[in-house]
Amino acid sequence: MIRDLATVIWKEYREFARGAGKGRLGTLIFVGVFGVLFPLQEGLDWFTGPLPLVYFCLLPATMVMGWVADSFAGERERHTLETLLASRLPDGAILWGKVLALVLYSWAISILGLLSSALAVNIASWDGRVHFYPSYILLGTLSLSLLLAGLTTALGVLISLRAATVRQAAQRLSLGILVVGWMPFVVLSAFPGAREALARWLDEATREVGSPQGVFIRALPLGLLFLLLVDGTLLAMARARFHRSRLILEKGR
C-alpha cells in the first residue's frame, strides 16, 4: 500500500512539474512577498505578531485550489481517468495518494514561508542572536496549516470527483470555501446568544490569562479538534464517493 501511495504521489508531482509554470511562479511570488518583503517590514516584531499565522495558514491552502480542482475533474477532462482507474493501483492508493500529494505540497509552502521569513528577518536585523518564533506560533502555524490544507483538499477532491470539467470543479470549490469560511459569521449573526457567549468567553479568558496570546493557546486545541472533525468527515465522504466502476461509467455532473 505504501509503495502504491508513493507511486500516485510521484505521478501527481511529475504532472504538476510538467504544467506548473504558473504554479511555480505563484510559489516564488508568495515566498518573495509573504516570506521576505512583509517580514522585513515588520522586523523582529514579525516573530511575535499574528501575521505568520494568517499568511502561512490561509494562503498556502488557497494556492493549491486549482490543483485540487484538477485532481479528478482534470483526469476526466483529459480522458486519462479511465487509464488511471484501469491500472493495478487500489482505490485507496489512488484517492489517498492524490490527497497526500496536495496536502504535503501546501504544507511545504507553509514551512518554506516560515523558514524564509525567519532567515530574512534575522539577516536584516542581526544583533548577534538568532531569533525565532515562540513555540505557540510555530506549533500553531504548523498544525493549522496542515489541517487547513486538509480542509481545502478534502472539499476539493469531493467536488472534483463529481465535476465534469476543471472549471466546474473550481467554481464549486470556490463557492464551497466561501460558504465554509463565512459559516461561523453567519451562525454568530443568526444566533445572538452564541455571539454573546463567545464574547463572554473571550473576555473571561483574556482577564484570566492576561494576554491575547494566552487566549490563542487555550483556543488552539478546540480549533484543531474542530478542523480535524471536518477534515475527517469530508475525507470519509470522498472515500464513500470513490467507486472505480461508477467513476469509469459516469461523466461527472
Q: Any chance you could write out the topology, listing elements then pairs?
A:
Blueprint: H1 2-18, H2 21-42, H3 51-63, H4 65-77, H5 81-85, H6 91-124, H7 135-162, H8 166-190, H9 192-209, H10 212-241, H11 244-249
Helix pairs in contact: 1-6, 2-6, 3-6, 3-7, 4-7, 4-8, 6-7, 7-8, 7-10, 8-9, 9-10
Structural summary, described in words:
This protein starts with a helix and ends with a helix. It is 83% helix and 0% strand. It has one domain. The chain has helices spanning 2-18, 21-42, 51-63, 65-77, 81-85, 91-124, 135-162, 166-190, 192-209, 212-241, 244-249.
Q: Bin the helical content.
A: over 70%
**Which spans of ≥5 residues are poorly predicted at pLDDT below 50?**
none
Taking all residues together, what is the mean pLDDT?
82
Quaternary structure of the protein:
single chain
Share in β-strands: under 5%
Query: How far is it from the N-terminal to the C-terminal residue, by CA?
Result: 30 Å
Our count of domains comes out at 1
- Global geometry: globular
Structural class: mainly alpha
| Largest sheet entry | none
